[in-house]
């Protein structure tokens, strides 16, 4: 997503939690494209770190901001009757509360630019996933947050949409047991995983002027997984 937006001419500031080497590598990879691409460490489960990141944006870009993509997610799976309070709260704080904290603090500068927000949810927020009551609840919450926020900010000229990916070839998917990965892929009517670039293209569309009359929408990018 960072590369695609940079290729489109956008300056991009992105966060990372622990993959410092990968973040620096991505900065270097994008450098020849021209626009500024900067990595900033941020644990989205900690509100103070999100506020510090917002301060970096204000200082670096002088309160000028056109787009926000809330693309953060962790899992801590367990059946409901074995799920710990720590597993529940860590996923809700990182996946849902962080989006509220980040976006609430940036609405003023976004409205000045008539900007746009894209929140990454999941098909798990639409259908639920066994063993993931925390993840499913957080992703369903993102859908409700997106729709409510879109209604509140439309009058300010800010559009807010969401993307609900299905199975995408990411590090998170790669952590699943191999047998579960095979079953997941077979469940997709298109019989393949989505690629990160395909989810990124959906985000780029929703941020662009081509989507200027779209707000409060959840764009499903799942290869047909949730077709009834």
From TrEMBL:
Q: Gene3D superfamilies from the entry? A: NAD(P)-binding Rossmann-like Domain
Instruction: Identify the keywords attached in UniProt to this record, alphabetized.
Output: Oxidoreductase
Which BP terms from GO are recorded? Answer: monocarboxylic acid metabolic process
Kindly give the InterPro entries that the UniProt entry links to this protein: NAD(P)-bd_dom_sf (IPR036291), Sc_DH/Rdtase_CS (IPR020904), SDR (IPR050259), SDR_fam (IPR002347)
Q: Which GO terms describe its molecular function?
A: oxidoreductase activity
Give the residue spans that cross the bilayer: none
| Pfam families per UniProt | adh_short_C2
The organism's superkingdom is given as Bacteria
Which protein family is named in the record? Answer: Belongs to the short-chain dehydrogenases/reductases (SDR) family.
Protein name per Swiss-Prot or TrEMBL: 3-oxoacyl-ACP reductase
Please report the organism this UniProt entry assigns to the protein: Paenibacillus sambharensis
